[in-house]
Amino acid sequence: MATITGMNQLVRKLKRLESKVAKKIVRTGVRDGSKVFQKEVKSNILSMLTGGRTLKTKAGKTKVSSTLEKIKGRLSAAMHNAIIVRGIKKQKKGQWGANVQFNLTKQGDVLIYKGKGKRQFIPAAIEYGHRLFFMGHDTGKKTRPIPFARKAFDSKDSTAKQTAIDSIKSGILSEARK
Asked: Which residue segment(s) compose the domain that 162 sits in?
């Protein structure tokens, strides 16, 4: 979880606002910052699965279409389409956060492998690597990790923080004008 520091003026201005309004402004800002990570994770999944080729629809948006399903199968399309931003519960008063995660209600049947009494989350196996099994026996080999989420966090950390700060500032200014 990234923390934003050096925002004393913003905090003072937020305290002057009504509590309900201030919470809404901060939640929106944190969510906007998390959207930066979401876009980068989706982009990393596409580049990982398509070898760097970009796929575009008629509207010009990058989206997984039936073409990608033909290239890498149902799993890659499910991974791309299941990435969502979801708010997290407060751990303590005055703390807000959002997670970029997989929506298992949407694509859970594809993203979870159910073997002999074991369930394995396939995106985690891709992110961190996994041991290879052949016909139920461990081969002793391990696949290399392909970090798509960690790479997104490392490359877009400062951009996401700045996006969240800008969103909070604009929210405060728009409330002040009312």
From this structure: 19-105+148-170
